[in-house]
Amino acid sequence: MSTPGSLDALVNALTTEELVSLVAGTNVWETAPVERLGIPSIRVTDGPVGARGTRFDGPESINVPCSTSLAATWDPALVRRVGELLGREARAKGARVLLAPTVNLHRTPIGGRNFECMSEDPYLTAEQAVAYVEGVQSEGVACCIKHFVGNDTEFERNTIDSRIDERTLREKYLVPFEAAVTRAKVGSIMTAYNRLNGTFCADHTWLLDDVLRGEWGFDGLVMSDWFGLHSTIDGILAGCDLEMPGPPVHRGARLVAAIEAGEIDVDAVRTCARRVLEFVERWHGFEDGAPGPETTRDDPDDVALVREAGAHGAVLLQNRSDADGAAVLPLASSGLGRVAIIGPNAFHGQVLGGGSAHVNPTSISRPLDALTAFVEAAGGTVTSAPGCHIHKRLPSLSSRLRTPLRGAFFLHPDELDDPSAAPARSLENVSPHAMWNENPADPAVARHEFGARLSTTFTPDVSGPWQLSLATVGAGRLLIDGTVLIDTGDAPVGGSFFGLGTDDVVGTIDLVAGRAYEVVVELRRAGSEVAMSGLLLGGFPPVLVDLMDEAIDAAGNSDVAIVVVGTNHDWESEGWDRTSIELPGRQDELIRRVADASVRTVVVVNAGSPVAMPWIDEVDAVLVCWFPGQEMGNSLVDLLSGAVEPQGRLPVTFPLRMEDTPAFEHHPGRNGAAEYRERRLFGYSWYETVGRPTAFPFGFGLGYAEIELIGASVSSPHEVTVELANRSGRDGVEVVQVYVAAPGEVGGAAQAAPGDDEPASRLVGFARVEIPAGRSVTATVRLDANAYRSWDETAGGWRQSAGPRRLYVGRHAGDRAAELDVLVPEPEA
Fold first, then answer.
1. I need a labelling partner for 251 at 20 to 30 A (CA). Which of 290, 485, 646, 801 fits?
2. What is the C-alpha R_g of the chain?
């Protein structure tokens, strides 16, 4: 094993070219080795809901709940266990770095990657992030926490200037990163794509050197987001150690030339290279050598943990009782009767969001399958209907109706026109959602120029007008039996592959069921420095029945209707934001019509972010399950049957309308800048301080047990004792939350003056408490060590406000089950 002394010798032995090679990736997922000196490469892999490995269509991985779902557990111990699982998954993919967790805050409910993030609240995010990082890193895998900082939406994310004042940065957006560094000792940090107050984050000396390394004492590795470095010299000087991916765009030969021209001192490069080597040593790269093979784990205990976590993160928002006082949920375990299972997500089940967080799950428990098995075991019968479709992009061309997609790849696009040309590479089973991070004709070729011909035999099972679609990076064509149906050559760019690919081009053609058609896709990729390329081949059959009427008939002939609605990766994904909080398609109409037809209606919302619920008063029960991971169906059965107590609490506010949300007037940005004019007033701070109503407040959630908060007292300025009683015959769970009022507001909630951004209160402590049936318990809530600090803009530092403060104890933001006064001492000198 290497030692610090030997690291010095190793650094001194490196040539300039070798130093430069170490500060950039050698390919999409690995750092550069220096074989003559025994320096191995380190492999990284995407997270945060699994460890995918080096290919988007590569070996299967265990898929855990999305980060919003994990945050909704309010259970750091459970999140740590999930982190440990992910550490084991990363090692199975030969990786030493998991690119996770994502801890940007939910500034607006329509952020495209909100499902990857945890919460609108910095303290809740910090507590869950620390647990996540500690869990992963306990398995010998480094976390790379991201995106540092201000990458809170996807609008113009590669260039947007996030303009955030320092107090808002310090008290809100930087808090989770600071906690991960100072408490969890996170191994790595990924810089954000965006600018922060005018400077790209990867070039930001104040952010990376002054704050991260200077104030927080970070001694790990800083890497750029993929293609997120915009300089050859500035990033080195700021302290961005590693340009990703490779081959480099800004370093490599450009950096060598800058050194030789005297534009940058080689010692600055040596500093970054040494930090790369320190990272390799710290995470056992010298011991283990080159990255290992990529394998699939399918441990039953880990799959059981995914099921548990998915159930514990779900939030019960409504559960009405009938005239006899019986609640709709949980469902009876026997004599269940007739159950209608309705909704597009009942059939498909969205277990994860889109973009770089995607993994290929080892298995998927679909809601319809799992619920049907439960109902039939309980003596009931099931009818099912999707009711409507919600796709924005056509689903992938069904593997059930086609032969494996065969690929022939050529080094030059023009070879597609030469019948005698032999492919440089052939593949027998290409995904219809193919993405390549290297040249698919020859991964060793640095220039990303190729031609591809993919072919399959498609046999439709329904006659009529089929829709086929194609999106490509480069110019593409789709041919049916030799006739061109689609040409993407003139299609607008920006609608796929993180903005690099075209919008979907859709063609309609009449096909006959049972007849075999030859489908060919041609792709011509011109030379580019950007490695990523790919294509999306979609297909959708003719709709021969009225889906809505079919669903209403099923609901009308049922004793209870379970309607599973939500979003999918077309709507929630890296690369774009949602445009509204409305459920896509005709889902709102579907819910209302089902509720009108059915005796009882249970709605399950399967989405990664808040959605509007204009039908809330018309249904009996509402459960939000987020994107709960690959055990979705089984987790739902556990909850709806009552085998598991609903115990999730909202980590985000559910607004009534987009117009009510704090960033509405400022999002998505104008003239290349995103002005954070709401400053510290976003999330529940906004709604409480300005008096804006919500659909459901931050921290809200119901259970089946009847829990009463019967008393609370202050043990110390950083500890509150709470007494809870369970008045029901089943074990229950409560999440006790403690909020501190604004300074100087003892005796009442703060009211913001015009232009003031002081939150009326903020979360400073919480505890998940289990209360057995018919019992009372006393719980201790330990408060944030920084509960009473604030950023002094004049002095440019933190101050603790000594004196009397008020604490609110309750079940959600705005709940005042108990109000306590505490005397905060003067800080120690």
1. 290
2. 27
